[in-house]
Give the backbone structure.
Amino acid sequence: MKTFGYILLGYGLLLLLAGSRATQVVHQNALGFLLRHLQFGEVLQAFLVMLR
């Protein structure tokens, strides 16, 4: 489950960067997406989309 640990670490870093409530809502939706799609490639793409 190393990959899952890295996912949680990356998500934690994103939460630290979250400032506004709108951003927090986006992160909650992203967390739901991550829980449904735990494949690393899809998660990485989701992170890249959120960072744009």
About this structure: The chain has three helices and no strands. The chain has a mean pLDDT of 72. Residues 2-51 form one domain.
